[in-house]
Write a structure and sequence with these properties.
This protein is α/β, with parallel strands linked by helices and 322 residues long. It has 11 helices and 11 strands. β1 and β2 form a beta hairpin.
Length: 322
């Protein structure tokens, strides 16, 4: 069926005025053009919509059935037109952004604040999860963008990733506890009480692998928490934690931050989106805000630009962390 919105608008105008000439004036077309479009609509629907007995215009049963549907279709089309125009001007819309828990804690608050200040009408829908889960959500179209940690668990050719920065991991401890040596080698963690993330958390796997590479199993006093829980356990003096530098920068005076001696531990943060579908305009603006925030975050003591092949330190393992 090839019913046109214009034909429905002409039909409603005639139904309202019960007069073809006045309806044509209302929709700003000639009366013959309007009559032709009404006849084309009747042919398309296979039913007469108006009874024209002795110059008196009335709706047929088919016309009565079509009228409420036509009004609804025209109203929905007008709403869609307004919403698209508002979205194009970034007055309304949404951005569906995924991020790993550590990036939700470290980088994302400032990003969301900056975006919301510029575009308060755009709804921000945040999905927190591991890089593997976020890649899956991107692939099925549930997210527009995702902040992930490279390398991805299952690289997908359908995704485009843009590296934002490399970030050191640091050791955090309670400010009430004795200060560890600084900088701290991974080997120095042997025998010290540590608070550990839950199973499946990339930071857990990275820390355990680094300790085992140094020849020891870490002494875990508490394990199983998310980022906020681990930081709370460390504040309570239950042990040391290994967290990204951007998270440590937001922890406040209750926690002491100690760098790891080289080669240390590092992760690469990237922004990902589907390759086969261009992100919506609001999401593209979010990309710009994230990249701007990443550039501001590139400080001597914090994140670093992604290393090129000839810049990378062969001693640096640069594994992924969540």
């Amino acid at each position: 069926m090839r019913v046109q919105l214009q034909q429905l608008a002409y039909f409603v105008a005639v139904a309202d005025t019960r007069h073809f000439t006045r309806a044509a004036e209302q929709v700003h077309v000639s009366q013959p053009s309007l009559s032709q479009q009404i006849k084309a609509l009747e042919r398309e629907l296979g039913a007469q919509l108006f009874s024209r007995a002795r110059g008196h215009i009335t709706l047929t049963d088919a016309g009565e059935a079509l009228l409420p549907l036509a009004r609804r279709i025209l109203a929905d089309a007008d709403t869609a037109r307004q919403e698209v125009q508002e979205l194009a001007q970034l007055r309304r819309g949404r951005v569906r952004l995924g991020a790993t828990p550590s990036l939700c804690t470290g980088l994302l608050p400032d990003v969301l604040r900056a975006f919301h200040d510029r575009h308060p009408g755009i709804a921000l829908l945040i999905e927190e999860g591991g890089s593997h889960d976020l890649v899956r959500e991107l692939a099925r179209g549930a997210l527009d963008l995702a902040l992930v940690v490279l390398p991805l668990p299952s690289p997908s050719p359908a995704l485009t990733t843009v590296e934002l920065f490399q970030e050191d991991l640091v050791v955090v401890s309670s400010a009430r506890a004795p200060a560890p040596r600084s900088p701290l080698r991974v080997a120095d963690l042997e025998g010290l009480p540590m608070v550990m993330f839950r199973h499946g958390y990339d930071l857990r796997d990275l820390t355990l692998a680094a300790c085992r590479a140094a020849g020891f199993e870490p002494y875990l006093t508490v394990e199983g928490g998310e980022m906020d829980a681990v930081l709370g356990f460390v504040r309570a003096g239950l042990g040391l934690g290994v967290v990204p530098a951007t998270v440590a920068a937001r922890t406040g005076p209750e926690l002491r931050v100690t760098p790891l001696a080289r080669p240390g531990l590092r992760r690469t943060v990237a922004l990902a989106h589907r390759s086969d579908v261009a992100p919506p305009r609001a999401a593209r603006v979010m990309q710009e805000v994230i990249q701007s925030a990443a550039r501001r975050a590139l400080t001597a003591n914090g994140p670093r630009p992604p290393a090129t092949a000839d810049q990378a330190d062969p001693a640096d393992p640069a594994p992924a962390a969540d």
